[in-house]
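Okay, can you check this protein?
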Amino acid sequence: MSNALGSIVHLSRPLNVALTFASVILGYWLAVSSVDTMAFLAALSAALIAAAGYIHNDIVDLDVDRVSHPDRPLPSGRVTNGTAALVTTLLAVVGIASTARLPPECFEVALLIVVTLVVYNHWLKHLPLVGNVSVGLVGGAPFVFGGLAAQHAEGAILPGAMASAFHFVREVLKDVQDLDGDCTRGSRTLPLLLGLSASRVVVAILLVSLIALIPAPALLGWVGPIYLLLGLILCTLLLLVCCLVLQAKQPSDFAIPSDLLKAGMVVGLLAFALDAV
């Protein structure tokens, strides 16, 4: 039982879910400079919905993961499709229900995110750039969701926009990493249309664009020096990722850059959090 539970937790991407939870809390804090029960309720709702989305993604991607990620719980057989489907449904329902005490806009956004995740997992992810943009928007939503829960969403727009840009770039990179698996089901992702060599260049250009974007809020006076300091550290990390991408020879070589970008999300979150404090 413990092994099955651990595999289900692994399916839900606990680190990503924790980042979603923290992003909502930060969005709430940036909106009203305080955190209360409503903030944690909003964060719980978003985290449950995020977990549901990740598990549903693995259900839909089972054939691809047999090629690209055979060690994951579903392709390895540690979790059955039926169990995963039940868990993802329960998480989504409870996540939406958790918005009952929040402002009505939170229910609407939660429902929209669930629908977007389902549509993305089934259809949008197979379209060049459209799926990447969808993930980017969903990736920035937790900050705005926190702001909506505090009824002052405007204070969370900047970190939400930056997070969206970051998620967009990482999703394009992940498409290159999954190139071999996506070939098995006739997807039309950008790397499949361009090929590995051209995709490396595109990802590198996106990373350089992100590096140029990160210091902009500080240079415009929207945030303070602590953000700028951590932002420059993040830019250094992105330069390393860019070098690794340009040196990659096969899709599996993009695994480490993808993990480094995930670490970069933590740095970005800390940049906004510590600057606000």
Summary: The radius of gyration is 18 Å. The chain is about 80% helix and 0% strand. The mean pLDDT is 92.
